[in-house]
Amino acid sequence: MGNKIPLERVDANRWRIPRHYDKNMHVSGMVYADDELMELILGDNALQQVANVASLPGIVGHSLGMPDIHWGYGFPVGGVAATDAESGVISPGGIGFDINCGVRLLATDLHYEQVKGRVENLADVLFKRIPSGVGGDGMRVLSRDEMQSVMLQGAGWAVAEGYGVPEDLEMTEEQGCLQGALPEAVSQQAWARGRKQLGSLGSGNHFCEIQIVDHIYDQHAADTMGIGRKGQIVATIHCGSRGFGHQVAEDYIKLAESKQKDYGFELPDRQLACLPLQSREGQAYLGAMKCAANFAWANRQLLMDGVRTSFAEIFGRKARARDLPLVYDVCHNIAKMEEYEIDGEMKRVCVHRKGATRAFPPGHPALPEKYQAIGQPVLIPGDMGRYSFMLVGAQGSMEQSFGSCCHGAGRRMSRTAAKKAVGSKELLEMLEKKGVTIRVHSKNLLAEEAPQAYKDAQQVVNVVHNAGLASLVVRLKPIVVVKG
Amino acid sequence: MQRKPYEVFEHTADIGISAFGTTLAELFIHAAQGMESVMVAPEQIHETMSCAISVEGHDHIALLISWLNELIFLFDTEYLLFRSFEITAITDNHLEGRATGERYDRERHDLGSAVKAATWHEASIERRDNGYQARIILDL
């Protein structure tokens, strides 16, 4: 499918889609992959989507594809695009439905030896304490005033309500709150969807995993993060803004779509519909998106509290932040206003990260003091059978990719194909053999997330490491997976 | 040959439905049945309660996406699954209808996939000699 597209090899890890490929492209495309990953990428239409994104008005630099790239709606998943803050656009589809879907990792001071006899027990308690699946409410049903506070304050609201400690905020991208949220730009439907879902995982690829530190690539960085002991137990939460973010995205994609003619935009895919950043509608979307991003941070804060409480219940700890500190929280579906040097000039741009993670290098002013010397922690969940990774942002990301890198392993099979390829019973047995304990509401949904449905995350992170966007710190192996 | 009211197709990202209807109203009903079937097989859904639905859209595709998203909204907020649909009024920009079904029950309903949104990606409605054909990709 994607093999009609001319690809120019730049180096071992980069491929260019030349601008002349399509007259609508304002910039060229740049895709990060080695030979093997490129084979997989050519299996779907993701490269055409990289080219389509290059037609967004006001796009600067390159339309970027990370090595976990795969076919999405409009934007590819694993795509990055920066648009000029003054003359450019914002595309709600370029942030995605699950606004501020992201990952956080917390460390424990436990070693696998202390946990291995109680894994089943731990899995049961996590499953009980962390609402997941469909058809149930979250940990906290919100009043109208509370909902408004969540939209405006994000994770800070959750901490003020007793879910966690102020130190958690310091270890969260943007301190867990984007300033400038506009609750008045959020529809009544979105309010209704968010009200009952705070503190819930939902379904799909979201999860809570207990993992062990399995391999250390960079001892100094791992020690700085407090995850430098082989066999150490950590917990990862992957979730976003639930139905609230979906409704915000739906509302504004529909609005943008209805305005394309008025703005004189002609984009190759209706899901790419966009709004000028400086228009009233563009600013309203940005304000609504911030509400959803803040909701997602509060959501992960509540879920983390559920993990801490579960550990306390099993291991008799008080689950203080000191015992289970938050290492870092990153988002991978978001738009951010940031500054980069483009053609020798500092420019303010709107960076769309659709399935891509911020990866700021050492010394970046947005990083907490703790990480100034090593760079921003970058969490890359793999699949539930193999491994996940922690990296740190590197200087190359500022020069090449608007401070961004990959976000996961990336799908290689559709959800339907995954279900056909492996039965849920067979999958559960396979995971059990690998030493992974699973708790899941819907076995059908579990098969959609089978390890073989994903690319090898090791190959993906090797590419971003070798390309200088981020560098490897530790590899993590799952022992407990809780899903919807 | 009788056209199938709807079919579910595979897509790298997720899943899609293609629906057929001799009229626009029938097309919308079949698309809704197709989408609900991705979640739970229709024979498992009892018809115990119904909801009135009213949506707007700037063209037929916008209207279809809004109609499907409204059903997803009702699943996400009230946990409602639907089996049968009625459309009482439909114009180029407005739809009035009713959906009948019941509340999702984890014990009784075998959930296939949880649909989170109807997308605009490759969305189409085509006029055919004998009716309308639509394709919509769903976000799971």
UniProtKB/TrEMBL annotation, chain A:
The active site is at 407 (gmp-histidine intermediate). GO terms for molecular function: GTP binding; metal ion binding; RNA ligase (ATP) activity; RNA ligase (GTP) activity. Binds 2 manganese ions per subunit. It is an enzyme of class 6 (ligase). Its EC number is 6.5.1.-. It comes from the Bacteria. Pfam families: RtcB. One of its GO terms (biological process) is RNA repair. Its cofactor is Mn(2+). Mn(2+) 2 binds at residues 238, 332. The keyword Cytoplasm does not apply. Transmembrane segments: none annotated. Keywords: GTP-binding, Ligase, Manganese, Metal-binding, Nucleotide-binding, RNA repair. GMP binds at residues 205-209, 332-333, 381-384, 388, 407-410, 483. It catalyses: a 3'-end 2',3'-cyclophospho-ribonucleotide-RNA + a 5'-end dephospho-ribonucleoside-RNA + GTP + H2O = a ribonucleotidyl-ribonucleotide-RNA + GMP + diphosphate + H(+); a 3'-end 3'-phospho-ribonucleotide-RNA + a 5'-end dephospho-ribonucleoside-RNA + GTP = a ribonucleotidyl-ribonucleotide-RNA + GMP + diphosphate. Coiled coil: none annotated. InterPro entries: RtcB (IPR001233), RtcB-like_sf (IPR036025). Mn(2+) 1 binds at residues 98, 206. Belongs to the RtcB family. Monomer. PANTHER family: RNA-SPLICING LIGASE RTCB HOMOLOG. This is tRNA-splicing ligase RtcB. It comes from Dictyobacter arantiisoli.
TrEMBL record, chain B:
GO terms for biological process: tRNA processing. InterPro entries: Archease, Archease_dom, Archease_dom_sf. Keywords: Calcium, Metal-binding, tRNA processing. The keyword tRNA processing applies. Residues 6-140 form the Archease domain. One of its GO terms (molecular function) is metal ion binding. It holds the Pfam family Archease. Belongs to the archease family. PANTHER family: ARCHEASE, PROTEIN ARCHEASE. This is Protein archease.
